[in-house]
Each structure stands twice: as structure tokens, then as C-alpha cells.
Amino acid sequence: MSSQVRLRVLPSARCLFDEPVQVKVAGLRSRQVVTMRATSKDEKGVVFSSSATYRADGNGEINLDRDPSLSGSYVGVEAMGLLWSMRADKLHTKLKKLNSLNPHVVKFSVHEEEGEGRTLGEVTNERCLIGDGVSRLTVKEGNIRGALFTPPGEGPFPAVLDLWTLGGGLSEKRASLLASRGFVVLTIALYGHDDMPKNIKVVHLDYFEEAIEFLKKQDKVGSAGVGVISLSKSGDLALSVASYLPGVEATVWINGCCSNTVFPLYYKESQIHKALMYDSSKSIVTESGAFLIKYNMDNPLAEENKGSLIPIERAKGHFLFVASEDDLNWDSKGYMDLMVERLKRYGKDNYESVSYPGAGHYLEPPHGPYCPSCVHGLVGKPVLWGGEPRSHAAAEVHVWTKIQEFFKTHLRCDATQTKAKY
Is 349 a catalytic residue? Predict the structure, then answer.
């Protein structure tokens, strides 16, 4: 490595996963062309990498906030482009970051453009999933299986139930990052985690009621009710939680459905919704081997499927509907439009909606690698998720801020709520 070249990550080489950083290079020759690279490994050992070509200015400096990539994994000025453009060295693979205690470690490096690309400098960016002072507690109480994240300090803090996608285990990333932003967050699994069954045939709303009661009893919780955040299949479960259970003040629905899907929904041992099903024979296999499944779901408005529609007009709390316009998992934008139309028909104004052109199905906390395809938990085969990497990355940045603002607006905290629990 060249002793003159300095590669820096600012303001610090250690940050939270959802925080942007400045990547700067100094000590190059005037107008020197170099290759910038980013590499990382996930929990399964899969390598993710990206590269981009840059030209230094007259002072031999490069600033990714200011300077455009000339070629590579992306082009143009993209301060965080080396992160969101990273691709796996294994086809149909999504970055696995299930354990919040393990940071996402990225090595940035700068290389000569000529010859074998001698390394001129490198620096490691440790991107933490859990903030300093945030506590993590494994939850195994009653039927609940999950993890509870609590911010440092006395509080009071608003409470959020994170449903993520619920299938096949537990993902902690979104929950731990929300807790790092000032929320008490309980993330739960539905099946396939710990001692839970590997497969299920029905879903019981009572499970979520139990989780909400557990969350509301936590010492630092100051909101009278709770928020719920979801994605994909858990979106319709979040709608049912908001529509049937008391104490839900704010619900974030991301790329879900307007009907109860896949599994019949029960409450107090009685079925309250049939399942909207899908036709796997409609799947289209693509050149990459991934399937296009967007048109597999049955029509929720068909007469025989109306028993699956969720009566969201019953909800007392507020909704934030988030849809990606290039979602290839299913027509989330169409489902969102149906829900908005339904609430308007009932004279409701307790919602806001946002949609993102060019974004795909998996909207996550920002600055992670964009995933075009991976194995679908229910389909059992790789599927296309949709989206264009740059637009998808921008959507994740925007919606992450919007989600936090939505919860802070609608989850009112009262210090007397916490004192009453001691």
C-alpha cells in the first residue's frame, strides 16, 4: 500500500447500519484514475462486493459525496453507492444479518487502475445494528418467541411491535435499529424459530394480542398504545391486529396485501378470515433461474374471496401505507390503492400513503446491499423482488425517516405511564 494515500470514513469508521458516511481519498496524483472497492461477508460467509472507477481532482483527492463514478457497479454521484450496489458472489442470495449483536463489517479500498490494481489504501467501516446502551433480551414467555430491544435512559419511550416477515425464524436488524432511534421494540417470530413448529396451517390473532400485552407492561414504555410495523405477508397480519385488537395506535404496512393471505386467521378459537390463496402454476421462470410470481395471487375482490378482505375501517389508530411500484412479489401498489379507496368510502382519514417508483419488494433499513432475487420463504424457490438498485436505495432512505416520524407523531408518551409500572 502507498504510505502517501489516505482513505478515510467520516465522521467515524464505526457507525450504525442506517447512518450515511463520507468516504474520502487523499494523497493521489493529480487527476489519477483509481478503482474504489467495498467488500463484506454475511453470517453465512457469502461475500458481497462492489467497485467503481473515480478520477481524483487537481489536488489528488476524491470525495464520494461530490465526485461521480465513471464506471463500475454504478455511475454518477452516489455517496453510499459502494454499499447499496454490493452484490453477492452467490446467485439469488440476500445479505443475512439476523443477529443484531454482529456488526456489518465493510472494507473499503482504493486501487491503481493500471496493471493488477495494486492496493493503495484501505479502511474498515463497522456498521453496527444496535446502538450503544441499547439492551437486548431474548423473550420466551408464554407463547411469545422473540427479542426485546430497549433504549438507554429512563424514558418514557414509545412501543413498537415488529412483525418483519415472521416466517422461518427471527430477524432483528430493523427492531434493533428502531430501538437505537428511541423506541422499545419487540420483534417476534411466528414459526420456525427456537422451539416453535417448523410449519403452520393457521394463524392465531391471540398470539399478537399476547405480544402486545407483554410489550405494554415493559418498564420504560410510555405510550398508551403500541405501534406495529410489517413487511410482505406480515402486512395483512398487521392490518388484522390494528382492526381487531385494542391499543394499536399506529400501523406501518410495507408491501403487503389488503386481504388475509396463505393461512386462515383465527381469534378465540374461531376463524375470522379465510385465506386468499395463490396459483403456483402461474409462476414464470426467468433466465437467471428465479421465478416471477407477481401474478400468482387470487383476486381479493372476487366474490369467493371477499371473506379474506380485512375490515380496516374498524381500526382506531392511524395507518402508514408504503408501496413499491416495481414490487414483483405481488401488486402491493394495487392493494394499497384498494385500501385507500375503502377507507375513503367509509369516511376515514386516519391514514397516509406513499409509493416509490423503481423500488422493489424488500424495503429495509437503508444502506444495505440491494437484493434482486433470493429464495422465497413460502414458495421455497428463488423469486424476483423487483426494483432498480439506485431508486430502491433512495426509497429506503426516505421511508426509514418517514416511519420514525410517523411513530413519533402517533405514539404519544406519558411519563406517568412508566411510573405506574414500578
Answer: no
